[in-house]
Amino acid sequence: MAEGGGHAHVGAREPMRDGVVHALVREHFAAFAEQMQEGGRSLPRYVVAEFEAFVRCGVLACGFMRARCAGCGHDRLVAFSCKHRGCVRAAAGGA
Length: 95
Prior knowledge:
alpha+beta, 3-stranded mixed beta sheet, 4 helices, 3 strands
């Protein structure tokens, strides 16, 4: 419980995790990268790093900040963004 009896509320769901593209990358990227490696065509490290950051972007379990209203004491948890230029959250100013 937050100070003053309030609860910490999660800000709007984790929108990145709700998207189709995020689900596809989360569920299939590791297998795709493995298939590429088995075929002798590994992905560059920067590509792997971008996809891994994309999967962690906007996920509370991967880091967040707690914002507290000075007036009412209401807390909100805000997930961190990867801040990469291809990130929809970062480009839209949602980070």
